[in-house]
Specification:
With 139 residues, the protein is of the alpha+beta class. The chain has one domain: Nucleoside Triphosphate Pyrophosphohydrolase (Alpha-Beta Complex). The chain has three helices and seven strands. Strands 1, 2, 3, 4, 5, 6 and 7 form a seven-stranded mixed beta sheet that branches. A hairpin with an 8-residue loop joins β2 and β3. It starts with a strand and ends in a 9-residue tail after the last helix.
């Protein structure tokens, strides 16, 4: 059995909205999630957030705050993650889909709009929202 893996979600804000991607391919296909992915050996969570956001969306971001984490067992795929959420400020670029095998759409949604779509959210993003990690702390 594999150990717990570390995932990183980049909370990229534009005003009161957060960038989300509709996932494709791997687990969570069809749900909305944050830019992000696996933390690689030698990377800080902040570096992972910057790298993954650039790879997935073309946006250049600066990490500003560690918002918290969620515990995300995924028994349906035999994995268990701890997901770290990093608040990021957008420095440049226009959001675009750069990895079509991983995401099929992108949107800028407010936390309230995300709550309205709770059933459509990737589990770690849903838990992040439920824990209030998107409220109160500005990136």
């Amino acid at each position: 059995m594999a150990g717990v893996q570390v995932g990183v979600g980049a909370v990229v804000r534009d005003g009161g909205r957060v960038l989300v991607l509709r996932r494709a391919g791997a687990h969570g296909a069809g749900t909305w999630g944050l830019p992000g992915g696996h933390q690689e050996f030698g990377e800080s969570p902040e570096i992972t957030a910057v790298r993954e956001t650039l790879e997935e969306t073309g946006l250049v971001v600066r990490p500003t705050v560690r918002l918290g984490f969620t515990d995300d067992p995924m028994p349906e795929i035999g994995r268990h993650y701890v997901t770290l959420f990093i608040g990021c400020t957008r420095l440049g670029g226009e959001a675009q889909l750069r990895e079509l095998d991983k995401a099929t759409a992108l949107a800028w949604l407010t936390p309230a709009e995300l709550r309205d779509r709770r059933a459509e959210l990737f589990d770690p993003l849903g838990r992040c929202l439920d824990a209030g990690l998107l409220d109160g702390k500005s990136a």
